[in-house]
Amino acid sequence: MRLRRLARKRMKSVYLDELAGNEKVKGKYGQLTYSIQFDIPVAKLTVTVIEANKLHVLPEDELLDTYVTVKLASGKHGRLEQIGKVQRTDIQRRTMIPRWHFQCKFDLKMDDLKYAILIFEIFDYDSIGQDRSIGRLATHLANLDVGAYVGTPLENTEWLKAGEPKFLGLGETCIGLNYHHALERLECHVYEARCLHVMYA
Predict the structure, then answer these.
(1) Comparing C-alpha atoms, which of 36, 49, 60 is closest to residue 146?
(2) CA 124 from chain center: how many Å?
(3) Half-sphere exposure of 23 (CA within 13 A, CB side)
(4) Does 25-159 carry CATH code 2.60.40.150?
(5) What is the pLDDT of residues 45-83, one digit of tens each?
(6) Which of 14, 61, 83, 87 qualifies as a cystine partner to 72, CB 3.0-4.6 A?
(7) How are beta strands 64-74 and 31-39 bridged, if at all?
(8) What whole-number distance in Å separates Cα of residue 7 and Cα of residue 37?
(9) Which residue intervals define the domain C2 in the entry (predicted)?
(10) % helix / strand / coil in the chain, to the nearest 5?
(11) What is the chain's mean pLDDT, rounded?
C-alpha cells in the first residue's frame, strides 16, 4: 500500500535557550552557601560547599538528585585559566535542600588571590541521560575582604544564576516530531544544525 504524502509547512526553528520565560531572573535558580579560608603558611585555599536551597525545579520534578562541581580559575593573564582539578561533591538524593559539607583545597599564592575566581555549578543527576545544570555561581575573590578569610573561614550565601547546558557532542540540531494517528506513523524532520565543531583528521 502506498502511503499518501502529507503536506507540511516549515516551522520556525526554536532552540531551548530561545524559549520565552528563559530569562536570567535573580532568585529564580536558588541559593548556594559556601565558605572559604586561605592559609598563608601552606598557600592553600580551602573551599567548603555547605548547602543549597530554593533550587529551580522543572514541572515534572518533585525532588532532585544534586551535586556541585567546584572550579578555581585565574584571570591574571587576561583570560581565564583553570587552576588545579575540577572538584565534585557526592550526590544528595531526593531532596530540595541538599547539604554536602564537602571540602576541597587548591594551591594558590597569596599574590594571586585578587585574580582568582571560584566557579560553582549545581547539577541534577540523571542516570539515563544528560545531567541538568540547575544554576551556577562565579565568585571573584577580589570582591571579598581578604582579611575576612585569611586564617579564618568566611561563610557566604549567594544567589545562583542560570546554569550552562552540560553539552557533550559536535553541535546542536533542530528536529520536529509529528505523529499521524490515522496512519499510525511518526515522522521525524531534521531542519537545521548550529554550533558545529569541525574535526580534522
Answers:
(1) 36
(2) 9
(3) 5
(4) yes
(5) 999 999 999 998 877 677 899 999 999 999 998 888 999
(6) 83
(7) unpaired
(8) 65
(9) 28-154
(10) 10, 50, 45
(11) 85
